[in-house]
Amino acid sequence: MLRAERITGGYGGRAVVQDVSFRIGEGEMLGIIGPNGSGKSTLLQLCIGALPLMDGEVWLSGHRLHTYKDKERARLLAVVTQQASVYFSYTVREFVALGRYPHRRRWLSVFNEADEEAIAQAMAEMDVDRYRDQSLQTLSGGERQRVYLARALAQRPAVILLDEPTNHLDIAYQMNFLDALKQWNDAKGRAVGIIFHDLNLASLYCDRVLLLGEGERKAYGESEQVLTEEQIQTHYGARVSAVQHPVMPKQQLLHSPGIQTEKQSGGNPQVRVEEQAAVIELPVPFNVFSGQTFTHTWKKQINVCLPGKVFDTKVSGPLIIDRHFDWHPGAGIRLKCIEDVNGEKIIMGAALHANQKADIIVLLLSKVRDDALMALLMELTKQLAVFLHPDLELGTITIGSNPQGERGKTQGARQTVSAELQKLLQQIRTVSP
Ligand SMILES: Nc1ncnc2c1ncn2[C@@H]1O[C@H](COP(=O)(O)OP(=O)(O)OP(=O)(O)O)[C@@H](O)[C@H]1O
Q: Which SMART domains would you find in this protein's record (predicted)?
């Protein structure tokens, strides 16, 4: 529906946006992200024809943008930006009705039935009908934002572009606004492009994300490919940790402050040897896999069965051995957890045979494809096993993989070794038994 093809443009002959391409198809939501001054708003201005292109082409519904007359273009393309206060004297209904002007033959002609219906529907969709006779000035920022979107919806465009629509909105208003927009888009099959500063909202709501840096396209694709720790570090200069959203199959980024107090960092791992099991309290949370189900729960505890003792997980109920786990009867130390690194799910196990010879088994449930990470995990598993049982003689190392896993599909892809995992390994090494 909207396609930018290698577009370049800016102000006074200075190209601020350079050679940027993307497309937003029917029913899609594209998130446009990038640090301050990276050219997001300029890109939007180029896409709506408010700034001239120096190079490249913008296509709207199959035609070059500049071939449309203004009114024609306004029927197809709506823009939601922070509105000027000049509009504040309008009532809500009057303001939403402005969305119908591109459809009217003459400026002062009365609204026909189709106009009335579009206005009423847009106000209902954005739930702003209750303010219909209030002036915009009397609304809160969040309420006003919904009215701006209602005006765009009343326009019944094919494409809506929004410039930071959730700025200044509290968390409820943000969710409310984006839920309503997504519902509308799912139902109507339009194309939506949104500039976001909140990367987690972009990840949650958008099908794809475009990352700008210094006016150039730095990354473009599904959110998990774009919103990685590495990209955010490189282009925003910010340290974040990527984690899986607990409910949605989406990645989220947690802020990792540069300065950490001991309290914040959690200190060293602590080991408590209890009657039945050893409990390792970790400084960083792990996601724990219990039986066949990935619990999605943040855990900071790993429970390890001591030789000859009955296993008791303390945290996540009885440990059930995964069906792909070639478990050895009589094993003494059992360790099993999943670390979710950039959405990677990894299962580790350490099995100690009755003869004190241990097999370290690392099972790959899905997507583990980084040799360095693999080596690290195996090393970590070994360290834990040795730490818990100093006399342990380590036997063969076996690597298995989930037969249904996606290892082959993703092999060779780039992946970052979790800094936290490295740190953890280091800390485990330095803990005296
Ligand atoms: N009207 C203008 N005239 C000249 N330069 C401009 C104009 N508007 C923006 N710029 C410059 O273009 C560059 C990109 O600005 P733009 O507003 O597109 O970035 P942005 O990514 O939207 O930033 P932010 O996240 O801070 O809103 C900046 O260097 C800015 O100073």
A: AAA
